[in-house]
Design goal:
By secondary structure, the protein is mostly helical. The protein has helices at about 1-30, 35-70, 75-100, 125-155, 160-200, 205-225, 230-240; strands at about 105-110, 115-120. It has a single domain (about 1-240), classed as Rhopdopsin 7-helix transmembrane proteins (Up-down Bundle). The chain is built from seven helices and two strands, in the order αααββαααα. Keywords: Membrane, Transmembrane, Transmembrane helix.
């Protein structure tokens, strides 16, 4: 999980740096921006982040299925395919209309000057559905981990109580992680809904919303990969690394550790 999320974050950072580098170079060299290509790169830069938000959900769902439905592998593939279609399918549908230039139109937007939109059927409705899915994923993830905890507690309570306590601590860490992700997603989603309805752009508000979004996502990654010690121990075990750091939960209160890895 750590390796996958870190690799995705590096890839998204490279895409974001490339897009902004293109804008900066074009601005200082005086070269004319190709609106269509710039807009498509901007769309990819924005939408690729939804995969980052969905990745922890996929990985924890895989963990949940192994614990609860260990032997039903055929159903797992089918269920995971449905989940991917629901979470990523709307995004691909919208991007297909924009990238293949199906009934497209342009609206003013900061950066490239204009943004490509598509008039394919149900574009607006699917866009709202995609936003709802992104906002709901942290809550669904927490619910899945509650089911994981109940399953482990039921099977191991009388056999291995330390393991049950470890799962409870990890569950608290995931709750804190999801809370930050949800809070920082509210302003960007509200702004996107407003922009979708009015098509009005306010540069200062747009910059502020993007700053909040990136700050929230960085905290989300920090809590997932580094900040919460019990989550870090769990992920180190997943990749086969033994870690001697003791859990950081004392008296059932979460404590965010210092940067160690």
């Amino acid at each position: 999980m750590t390796i996958i999320m870190s690799s995705e974050y590096v890839f998204v950072s490279v895409i974001h740096a490339s897009f902004n580098g293109y804008l900066i170079i074009s601005y200082y060299t005086g070269n004319q921006i190709k609106v269509t290509n710039c807009s498509k790169l901007c769309i990819f830069d924005l939408n690729i982040r939804q995969i980052l938000i969905a990745t922890p959900f996929y990985l924890h769902f895989f963990r949940f299925w192994l614990l609860v439905f260990n032997k039903k592998k055929i159903y797992f593939v089918f269920t995971l395919a449905i989940i991917i279609i629901v979470t990523i399918g709307p995004l691909l549908y919208m991007m297909s209309g924009q990238y293949f230039e199906i009934n497209i139109y342009f609206l003013p937007k900061r950066g490239c000057g204009y943004q490509i939109f598509s008039d394919i059927p149900f574009y607006t409705e699917i866009m709202y559905f995609s936003l709802i899915v992104v906002f709901a994923l942290p809550f669904i993830l927490f619910f899945i981990n509650c089911l994981i905890y109940r399953s482990v507690a039921k099977k191991l309570y009388n056999i291995n109580r330390p393991k049950v306590m470890e799962c409870r601590k990890i569950l608290k860490g995931i709750l804190l992680q999801g809370l930050f992700a949800s809070i920082f997603q509210v302003p960007p989603i509200a702004y996107l809904v407003y922009y979708s309805l009015t098509r009005n752009v306010f540069d200062n508000l747009d910059i502020t919303v993007h700053f909040i979004y990136f700050a929230g996502y960085n905290l989300y990654v920090f809590f997932t990969v580094v900040g919460i010690k019990d989550l870090r121990i769990m992920m180190l075990k997943d990749i086969g690394i033994n870690n001697m750091i003791k859990p950081s939960f004392v008296h059932n209160s979460p404590f965010i550790s210092k940067f160690i890895l």
